[in-house]
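JOB MANIFEST
job_type = single_chain_structure
chain_count = 1
residues = 233
[input]
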Amino acid sequence: MYPFPKPQLQLLDAASFPPADLDREAKPPLTVDGTAFQVVRTSAGWALRISSSSSVELYGPSDSSEQAEEWLHRYAAWRLWPLTRTRGPWGCLVKAPEGWMTALARTALPPTAQPHLGVQDAEVHAAGHLITPAAWSAVHDTSLPSGIWAIETQFWVREGYRVLATWATADLGTITRDAYRNQELGRGSYSPTNLAERLGVSQAAISSAASGTGWNPPVSRETGVLASRKQRQ
């Protein structure tokens, strides 16, 4: 299973372009594992420049920057895929040397590769994609029986909801504890009993959240929820 095949693009002779020509209208690069992918405008048209510590490659040209951006995402997704074990027909979630990144497969569309501020941002972004399989479920191994593919699809949908619920619970606990510390909830302020009634939970649930024993799932900011996924039942 490999939703991100290596793009087949025309290789240009980078040495034939003066450095000033390649830098006159360059878009911000996307760096993956030390390799920078950058859309540049040359005298021949828009191109994709791939730069590492040992080489510079130039692909193109194209009349539109949008086409070159598509090449960038295809190449970046292809490079991200082997860096992670958290991957599926929906794409992949990666902790690259540059930080957390996602590459998401999209039905009948080019993939999207994106850096994120941290593990929660990356996982919530990926989970939103997982729970909408219509966005990615046509990108799959067609050799699979339809029933097996249905199982795999629904498994990843479940994982998406699990990730969203876990991070939402962690945020809920943090917000509740902050409300106690800020004296917005508790004795002399808003009653935990009233809050419990509003939410339809027990007062013990509110109390345990305030003390850190409830609404406090064990989530590592280093490995996350989906990224540290082990064999699950």
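[summary]
The mean pLDDT is 90.
The two ends are 22 Å apart (CA to CA).
exit_status = 0
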